[in-house]
Amino acid sequence: MLDNLAVAVLRYEKLKTTEAKAKEVRGIVDRMITLAKRGDLSARRSLIASMPHEPLIVDKLMGELAAKYADRASGYTRIVKIGQRLGDAAPIVQIELV
Description:
alpha+beta, 3-stranded antiparallel beta sheet, 3 strands, 4 helices, single chain, elongated
């Protein structure tokens, strides 16, 4: 589930979810971007292994996002609180790429 959320964050560059899920996904997304910044074949293969059915996302990570965050050491995501869900009052946040 968390890998699917991470792929959605990378695909759409923002996602609304609960606060607990967003805090867990932040680490996964940051690790994927850091791996993509290495830019070698081993990094590409590791990304493909972590999301085998998403070759376009791997290409986006290795090309567009790696170049975008080349000067940034870490902290590629931001979590913004939106409010509470009506059904169970769970805190809803938006996780987005900086």
